[in-house]
From TrEMBL:
HTH araC/xylS-type domain segment(s): 190-291
GO MF annotations, alphabetized: DNA-binding transcription factor activity; sequence-specific DNA binding
Lineage, broadest ranks: Bacteria, Bacillati, Bacillota, Bacilli, Bacillales
Name of the protein: AraC family transcriptional regulator
PROSITE patterns reported for this sequence: HTH_ARAC_FAMILY_1, HTH_ARAC_FAMILY_2
């Protein structure tokens, strides 16, 4: 698609981009925006190509396969393979349009059920016209900024935004119907890793190896092996690390006396805490607090 004479704010044509949405593989041919100052002649796309049109402002008419449709602010329309269409702007309020053209192919047999449902709905909707309900303006504005600024990671961000825009289009087709399929659940190993993180953060003062093993549903040796695998530390080393982190945080974020901090992180005496802290950091707890307060 070539826009009539205008000043396009977005033109992503030479960037090679492949995206994936559910059970769809997308080969993005171009992304553009512009203001229609004259009519776009009737045309159609190739047998695998879809063109997503979003009009954030302005007015006009769309003629698709001989049928006229109104175009106004927040109009979304999709023109798929072999859909002959032309756009006619309102001379007094010419429409602005974002446009993404891509080839769309099924991802294959290994897509999950929800992904397959997205692909099926998309591929069988060769034409759709309606008012956007998914805040596409925000997504396209973010895409424009990414393309303009080209900050680190902009290519990945643009690809992600294209995927979100296509999902938003499908949600418009489906009138926001709920997914019929649950999201994949964490593996048991991942759940245990979350429990380990939570245990050391919330109970580093009282946590014991048998207690952690019971929480994880593992034996003591298995628990030790799990800690070694994920952190490269024994239980004792990991507990010391957690207690030191908790102590440092309390020293910086509170005005608690050092003796109370020692008890809060599980030390029976101030002396044992001070010995532990200086050995771990090279300075006393009081010096640590002073230095960090100066930095802040």
């Amino acid at each position: 698609m070539t826009f009539p004479p205008s000043l396009p704010a977005l033109d992503v044509e030479h960037m090679q981009m492949h995206a994936a949405v559910g059970g769809l593989r997308l080969n993005v041919l171009y992304i553009r925006s512009g203001t229609f100052l004259q009519s776009m002649p009737a045309h159609a796309h190739s047998g695998k190509s879809y063109e997503l049109h979003y009009v954030p402002a302005g007015r006009g008419q769309l003629i698709a396969d001989g049928v006229r449709y109104p175009i106004g602010p927040h109009t979304l329309y999709m023109t798929g393979p072999d859909i002959v269409h032309e756009q006619i702007p309102d001379p007094g309020d010419p429409m602005r349009e974002y446009c993404i053209c891509f080839e769309a192919l099924p991802a294959g047999e290994h897509a999950d059920p929800d992904s397959s449902a997205i692909a099926e709905l998309f591929l069988r909707t060769a034409f759709w016209h309606g008012t956007d309900t998914q805040q596409l303006s925000d997504l396209f504005e973010r895409l424009s900024r990414e393309a303009d600024l080209q900050s680190i990671g902009y290519y990945m961000s643009i690809r992600s935004l294209v995927e979100q825009i296509v999902i938003a289009a499908v949600r418009n087709y489906a009138c926001n119907r709920l997914s019929a399929h649950a999201a994949p659940q964490k593996t048991l190993d991942d759940k245990r890793l979350v429990l380990i993180e939570h245990s050391f953060l919330s109970a580093s003062d009282t946590l014991t190896l048998p207690g952690l093993a019971q929480t994880l549903g593992l034996g003591i040796r298995q628990t030790e092996r799990t800690l070694k695998q994920h952190y490269g530390l024994s239980f004792t080393q990991k507990k010391r690390q957690a207690r030191l982190s908790a102590a440092c945080s309390l020293l910086v974020t509170t005005t608690l006396p050092i003796g109370r901090i020692a008890r809060r992180v599980g030390f029976a005496t101030l002396e044992s805490f001070c010995t532990f802290f200086k050995k771990a950091t090279g300075i006393s707890a009081g010096e640590y607090r002073e230095r960090r307060q100066e930095e802040r």
